Amino acid sequence: MNTYLLEKVNKNPENLKSFSKKELEILCQEIRRKILHTVSVNGGHLASNLGIVEITVALHYILKIPPDRIIFDVGHQTYPHKLLTGRLEKFHTLRKYGGISGFPNPSESETDLFITGHAGTAISTAIGLQTAEDLKGGKARTVVVIGDGSLTNGVTFEGLNNLGSSRKNILIILNDNNFSISKTRGALSYYLTRWITMPVVNKSKEEIKEIIEKIPRIGEQIIRVGENLEQKTKYLIIPGIFFEKLGIKYFGPIDGNDISQILDVLKNIILYQGPVVLHAITRKGKGYTYAEQNPEKYHSIGPFDIKTGQQNSHSTTTGKLVGKFLEQSAEKYDFYVVTAAMEYGLGFESFAKKFPHRFFDVGIAESHCVIFAAGLAKNRKKPFVGIYSTFLQRTYDQIFHDICLQNLGVILLVDRAGIVSEDGPTHQGIYDLPFLRTLPNFTIFCPYSIKNLYEILNLSLNTENPMVIRYPKELLVEEMQEIKKGGKILCLATGSIASVAFKACEYLNQQGYVIDFIPVSRIKPIEDGVEKILCQYKKIVTCEEGIITGGFGSSILEVCNEKYRDFKVLRIGFPETFIGTGSRNEILKKYFLDEVGIKNRIQDFYENA
Ligand SMILES: Cc1ncc(C[n+]2csc(CCOP(=O)(O)OP(=O)(O)O)c2C)c(N)n1
Fold it and tell me: What pLDDT digit, counting tens, does each position of 339-378 carry?
């Protein structure tokens, strides 16, 4: 693969500044090819990165980074940025154990300022950075790159509101491709789409006048009151008006995949004082036909064949089983399914297609999503909320205030609980249990097998109180057994790690140890049977795929502490830390949570504690 220009930039990023427009175009092609090739082997966020190439190259051409800085919202679209900032040689390790991250990471490069992966933070971060810059009397510039999906996020709105009044010199590039993962949802998206489809952009002044006049009711009025044509066309530019009302200057839209056009506009806009939005229309998946035609599928994809576009493996997920269950139950039960832009990852596409009036995608708006569901429940329409564990963190207050405090029958389907492999520290689903466990009125389940998952889902159809069902991405085992041998140690394991702990106990029992094992799925309130049996053991081991601080093991420790005097508890789980990229197996091994690690720790506890 020819990466001549990319190598030149890799040697010294300053070389980019001497490239001709033709060379910049070729550089964009080299970047696209490199990304396509690497993601086809490692998996990753393909479509978003292919769409953002020209904008990234243009920004690196215009800015001096550092001290100038680009803050990418979410950060899933930083592959071109990584290739332009010294990570070409390591790019083949993208998302691998010990390799470079699929998201910004300051430990890789000083040009990545924050570790990010959750939507909506970039504008607030930029205001903070720029305020500090002003306080220091510095001259560095801050540019935000944000997609139309992330623009709809509530945190983004808070940032925009503050930006308009704080008047900071921040340039926001709105990367508008009409998609988040699925089609972007909400009124703002509707207005942006109107803009794209409106033919006004390339028309002559006379033609623009004609178009405005034809707008029912308000067209003639606009022509009368507008002072000049530019001002008149502004009334067509509804998103422009949205930003300008907030005090943010709006320019655009421009073709965000045309490097010449972006450079011409950027050169002028970068000199503008105060907050500015540049609206760039891009094509998600640009340059790779399969991704252009199906941006949802190629938003985040596992390894695939470049020629055919086919994914190498099609492992099903626990979420897909949940989606299927909902679909089948919907014929008999009256309920609704809600998500914050994660229909595809949750495995809910089929339900959404079959029951479009019972499915609500509210956009990347987790806090709103949870309160919306509370409203449904209060008005006797039973909601299931599908959400990833890591994004659930955004909704702690809403769960507390709008679900648990009101004791409403909202069922939270918490997917990606446990290790999520390649997405790294921003996406690990290991922190939710400790914060959920503190809230009154909740029942929390961590199913340990598919059979157990279905039992819990069936239960949830008839429940009228708040409930959480946490499950991993990977398929759970079909069934799980108990081991009851009257052993001197009891091992209690919950959720996805239970099958690993079971194997470790089974192995030890074969070696002559006597260890009892019980898989536990209802961890709040702790299952009655489990609570009663604890008194029979002096040594108890707990196992969970989450941090041990405040988790399942801690709840067992609390019960023992309240009821018994003479006991020891070994809690096996993750230490209080952030966990990087790698496959689930690699990470479990590193933290001694694989079969061998668990076996060794139980053995040591058995013999020495
Ligand atoms: C708070 C939060 N919710 C959900 C996600 C999952 N997610 C990752 S990227 C993405 C879509 C972002 O869309 P957009 O900003 O338009 O960028 P694009 O990928 O289209 O370039 C979503 C929903 C997330 N990262 N953060």
Answer: 999 999 999 999 999 999 999 999 999 999 999 999 999 9
Q: What is the pLDDT of residue 159?
A: 97
Q: How far apart are CA 174 and CA 184, in angstroms?
A: 14
Which strands sit side by side in the sheet containing 522-524, from one edge to the other? 359-361, 335-339, 382-388, 411-415, 467-470, 443-445, 522-524
In this predicted structure, what is the pLDDT of residue 245? 86
Res 70: pLDDT: 98
Count of residues for the chain? 609
pTM: 0.92
Amino acid 216: pLDDT: 45
Closest residue by Cα to residue 342 from 355, 351, 334: 351
Ligand 1 centroid, distance to 181 Cα (angstroms):
6
Comparison of pLDDT for 312 and 589, the residue scoring more: 589
Task: Say which residues have a Cβ less than 8 Å from residue 89's Cβ, sequence separation at least 6.
Answer: 10
E strands of 177-324, at which residues? 249-255, 276-281
Given 3.40.1190.20, 1.10.340.30, 3.40.50.300, 3.40.50.970, which CATH number is that of 318-470? Answer: 3.40.50.970
> 282: exposed, middle or buried (C-beta count within 10 Å: 0-12, 13-18, 19+)?
buried
Residue 443 has pLDDT above 50, yes or no: yes
Whole-angstrom distance, CA of residue 565 vs CA of residue 105 = 47
Q: What pLDDT score was predicted for residue 252?
A: 79
Cβ of 34 less than 6 Å from ligand 1: no
Please state the domain extents for the chain: 4-8+21-198+236-293, 318-470, 489-608
The values of phi and psi at residue 301, to 5°, are -135, 150
**What CATH code is assigned to 489-608?**
3.40.50.920
Level-2 CATH architecture, domain 4-8+21-198+236-293:
3-Layer(aba) Sandwich (3.40)
Alpha carbon of 388 to ligand 1 centroid (Å): 13
Report the atom number in ligand 1 closest to the C-alpha of 364. Answer: 3
Cα–ligand 1 centroid distance for 364 (angstroms): 7
Other C-beta atoms lying within 10 Å of the C-beta of residue 408: 20
Which one of 78, 281, 364 would you pick to mutate in the ligand 1 pocket, going by the greatest count of ligand atoms within 8 A of its CB? Answer: 364
The CA angle 365-367-370, to the nearest 5 degrees, is 105
**Is the shortest distance between the CB of 282 and ligand 1 below 6 Å?**
no
Closest atom of ligand 1 to 342 CA is 23
pLDDT band at 201 (very low <50, low <70, confident <90, very high): very low
Dmax (CA) for the chain in angstroms is 93
